[in-house]
Write a structure and sequence with these properties.
By secondary structure, this protein is mainly α. The chain has a domain of 34 residues. The chain is 19% helix and 0% strand.
Length: 63
């Protein structure tokens, strides 16, 4: 939130990401664990709207 550097952030992030990677994710798609992506599906009723800081976002488990 502050932009302040966090010591060993990359190592901690990668280790935690590997540890918490959901079972349904193909780990072979990661050549390293310092990566985070989210695929999105926008309901037709929300098309054209703008996502802003503070808007609620739900992350649903994939299949």
């Amino acid at each position: 939130m502050t932009g302040e550097a966090y010591p060993d952030f990359q190592k901690i992030f990668a280790a935690k990401r590997k540890e918490t990677l959901p079972g349904w994710v193909a780990a072979s798609r990661f050549n390293h664990f310092y990566r985070l992506s989210v695929n999105t599906r926008i309901p037709a009723s929300s098309a054209g709207n703008i996502l802003q800081v503070g808007d609620e976002v739900q992350i649903l488990e994939g299949n």
